[in-house]
From TrEMBL:
Its EC number is 3.2.1.8. It catalyses: Endohydrolysis of (1->4)-beta-D-xylosidic linkages in xylans. One of its GO terms (molecular function) is endo-1,4-beta-xylanase activity. GO terms for biological process: xylan catabolic process. InterPro entries: GH (IPR017853), GH10 (IPR044846), GH10_dom (IPR001000). Residues 73-375 form the GH10 domain. It comes from the Bacteria. Belongs to the glycosyl hydrolase 10 (cellulase F) family. The keyword rRNA-binding does not apply. Keywords: Carbohydrate metabolism, Glycosidase, Hydrolase, Polysaccharide degradation, Signal, Xylan degradation. This is Beta-xylanase. Pfam families: Glyco_hydro_10. It comes from Pseudokineococcus marinus.
Length: 431
């Protein structure tokens, strides 16, 4: 049998993400497809690689004005076609914005149809989707402030059921609740928002339970995340309490907004190890690296730093490209990591005005875009490759775990390479 086809320079640290598979190919009659040329190509990796899809909402809906309801991603819809091409050329997963304050600024008038059209547009192009977030104290609906706490809870429960139910089958992954560590003590406003008040009175764990149980009831197949930016022991204690209380958490979301500098490999692995001990998959939900001047280290709340101008620089762009590849290699090397989401495709309208994007505000790509694409769609990817089966219809393929497609004379079959190491996969071609 021919030796397995191998992608260039496999990284030994990613052995848990690679497979040496033997494809046993059969024709439409069930006979081995012997001594035949087949084309094998990767369609989507098992390791979800994503970005926010906020900039594509207006474009997917045929709008002309930028979305002012989202605090992250304000690119003009006129750039949508170009940004969509760049997005689809690199990413396979998108996070869509469900911030309550922007999604339902007027009670009873949610932005459901618009987000559904966006979700369908992306799903039709093979993109996996996640909603962010179902419960969060920041950017929540302002009209909750004047409601009694019992009514706030009732409205929040109904909101979870509505969104998860309305998007089931399109959006089947959710940040069920976001930044609970700080939620009951959040004091960045003149009047306490309704969700902070709810969490303060009910308690963190009870609030988390509410989010997960309502979402689970609306879509039992959904993947539900507990997500936070606080990588201290406070988040670990929260996770311990939530799991001890019997709340079913599907994955832990860890944010890594590195506006004050790259964490580095050692710290990143230390953080991953601390949260991997809970035995849950880890999703790096919000990663950013700057291509300009770093935020001063003394700033405690990133939202407090708002310079008049925060440009991308040539030196910063080279640094960002290097650190981005190092970051992705480090995350992929850890077996607990199932998903990596970068938080910003373009600098246009980026959070805090920071130069975090892989695309400049004028639409040109930075070195970081090209470097990441070379990694995930080059080194970690199997392009369409012609291989020849042996006398028993077998052919060897080595590549990263994920979804693949095999074609022969116009007939194609989808297959999944889901097990690391040596494995055999049966492939049946249709008529």
């Amino acid at each position: 049998m021919p030796a397995p086809h191998r992608s260039p320079a496999p990284d030994a640290s990613l052995a848990h993400r690679r497979t040496d598979a033997v494809l046993a190919v059969r024709d439409a009659d069930g006979a081995p497809l012997a001594h035949a040329d087949v084309v094998v190509e990767q369609v989507r990796p098992a390791l979800a690689l994503g970005n926010i899809g906020f900039d594509l909402v207006g474009f997917a809906n045929g709008e002309e004005e930028a979305d002012t309801g989202s605090p992250f991603g304000g690119a003009a819809p006129s750039r949508g076609a170009h940004l969509a091409e760049l997005f689809l050329g690199l990413y396979d997963t998108a996070t869509l914005p469900f911030y309550w304050g922007g999604f339902e600024p007027v009670r009873g008038r949610p932005d459901t149809a618009r987000l559904q059209r966006t979700a369908r547009w992306l799903a039709d192009r093979g993109v996996r989707l996640k909603g962010h977030p179902l419960v969060w104290h920041t950017l929540t609906a302002d009209w909750l402030r004047d409601l009694p706490t019992d009514e706030v809870e009732e409205a929040q429960r109904a909101r979870i059921r509505r969104e998860v139910g309305d998007f089931a089958g399109l959006v089947d992954a959710w940040d069920a609740i976001n930044e609970v560590v700080i939620m009951p003590v959040f004091a960045n406003e003149e009047r306490t928002n309704g969700i902070t008040r709810l969490c303060r009175e009910r308690g963190r764990i009870a609030t988390v339970r509410m989010a997960f149980e309502e979402a689970r009831g609306a879509n039992p197949r959904a993947t539900l995340l507990l997500n936070d930016f606080d990588m201290s022991t406070a988040y670990e204690c929260l996770v311990e309490g939530v799991l001890e209380a019997g709340v079913q958490v599907d994955a832990l979301g860890l944010q890594s907004h590195m506006h004050q500098g790259y964490w580095g490999e050692e710290r990143t692995l230390e953080v991953l190890d601390r949260f991997a001990r809970f035995g849950l998959p880890i999703h790096m939900t919000e990663s950013t690296l700057l291509s300009g001047d770093l935020m001063p280290p003394e700033v405690e709340d990133l939202n407090d730093f708002r310079p008049a101008s925060w440009p991308s620089t040539p030196e910063g762009e080279e640094r960002q490209a290097d650190e981005l590849v190092r970051h992705y290699r480090t995350l992929a090397s850890h077996p607990a990591v199932e998903a990596i989401t970068y938080w910003g495709l373009t600098d246009e309208g980026a959070w805090l005005g920071a130069p975090v994007g892989l695309v400049r505000a004028d639409g040109t790509t930075k070195p970081s875009y090209d470097a990441l694409r070379d990694l995930v769609r080059g080194e970690w990817w199997l392009p369409p490759t012609t291989l020849r089966t042996d006398g028993e219809g077998r052919v060897g393929v080595a590549g990263h775990l994920g979804d693949y497609r095999l074609t022969h004379r116009g007939a194609g079959a989808d297959l999944a390479l889901a097990e690391a190491g040596a494995t055999t996969v049966e492939v049946a071609l249709p008529r």
